[in-house]
Amino acid sequence: MEQTPIHPLADGAQGTLFRFATAGSVDDGKSTLVGRLLHDSKAILADQLDTVTRTSIERGFGGASGGIDFALLTDGLRAEREQGITIDVAYRYFATDRRSFILADCPGHVQYTRNMVTGATTADAVIMLIDGRKGVLEQTRRHLSVVKLLRVPHIVIAVNKIDLLDYDEAAFSSVAAAVRAVTDELALGAVHVIPVSALAGDNVVGRSANTPWYTGPSLLELLETLPGADEVDRAVEDFRLPVQLVVRPQGAVAVATDAAHAFRDYRAYAGQVASGSVRVGDAVTVTPGGASTVVTGIDFAGQDLDQAIAPQSVSLRLRDELDIARGAVIGAAGTLPAPVRDLTADLFWLDPQPLNPGARVLVKFGTSTVQALLSTVTGRLNLDTLSLETASSLDVNDIGQVTVHLAAALPVETYAENRRSGAFLVIHPQDGATLAAGIVTVAGVPA
């Protein structure tokens, strides 16, 4: 059968940061897998392990894990421990000799899909767990649809509880075929499928002798070798820096020294590089206004840099004094799109109150927040058929297509062109609550 290859690590990629999230249906074993991954990679402190072991024994937990309930390592909220479910996104940080990781353990319940969206938005990879005994479920399809819309670069399917299937190759192959049927229908591209046992540790950190028919990498081996999204995006996405703050020191003493004069005249534009990279001497364009200038300096934590790359937070010094404020975007010369007021977007509706056409909201793109009108709802994604059906409203956790009219023109890009510039939040104008996460599918007619 087809095996998951090990991807060669790019030169110089050792020690890079890799972000990944877990997803799947309820009781598929996500928290147990995360706990096993942390435990077997020796990322758990001794006192924390002692506490978890003691709590596990008190609850009568035993079996293949040697008396440790690994889910306790991630289910940190009291309600999670009491109910035995994951509610919030639990972030964990660990490192191996090859790479540093940020891990987001996402909930599986339908009512917490919004948290799964949160965890997957910035992920380089998503590990989708499937109970080998149950196969593909509706929530599996829901999460795969979210992953598709969010354009997460790498998808790893972990067919869990392979020990309960007696390590049977035919049983694994059947589930893998069903998974690939869905991922092919969604056009998700290359998907890595690995048989694992979170409880027993098979193929989580090391390769298991219990699955001799599987010759691919373990889960951790794969995560150590996949290229990060920033590495891939820098090569294909143009430079973008949404301005968060204009740095202009105040109160300088006017003395006749070159240093004081330089301090008094210092002006820079701070923000996080959303995509691409920029060097001193590069020509850039600023919107709104469309003015062109040249980068004369890059400041980072008190140091001068020759180059800044995503996702660094830096301050740029420019050759010309321009009218630039928070919300402006600095981009590679000639690459910024014309500002638009109208767009079509896919929305992940997160609010318990339904979305009805004509809702007046705030929309946040990068550092810009503008008033907007959600003009129409054109469809809702059917998670059974994966097709867009006609709909007039969206309910909580629905994924739907809407048209948006902005009160002010913004340099909007489609999510397919730029993951960061093409994503936005929908905010309640009165209480500031997040109503939805959106991605631009079509940018409207230029204003």
From TrEMBL:
Family matches, as SUPFAM superfamilies: EF-Tu/eEF-1alpha/eIF2-gamma C-terminal domain, P-loop containing nucleoside triphosphate hydrolases, Translation proteins
GTP-binding is among the record's keywords: yes
Pfam families in alphabetical order: GTP-eEF1A_C, GTP_EFTU
Entry's EC annotation: 2.7.7.4
Top EC group: transferase
CDD domains per record: CysN_ATPS, CysN_NoDQ_III
Keywords: ATP-binding, GTP-binding, Lyase, Nucleotide-binding, Nucleotidyltransferase, Transferase
Domain called Tr-type G: residue spans: 15-231
InterPro entries hit by this protein: CysN_GTP-bd (IPR041757), CysN_NoDQ_III (IPR044139), G_TR_CS (IPR031157), GTP-eEF1A_C (IPR054696), P-loop_NTPase (IPR027417), SO4_adenylTrfase_lsu (IPR011779), T_Tr_GTP-bd_dom (IPR000795), TRAFAC_GTPase_members (IPR050100)
GO molecular function annotation: lyase activity; nucleotidyltransferase activity
Protein's recorded name: sulfate adenylyltransferase
Hydrolase found in the keyword field: no
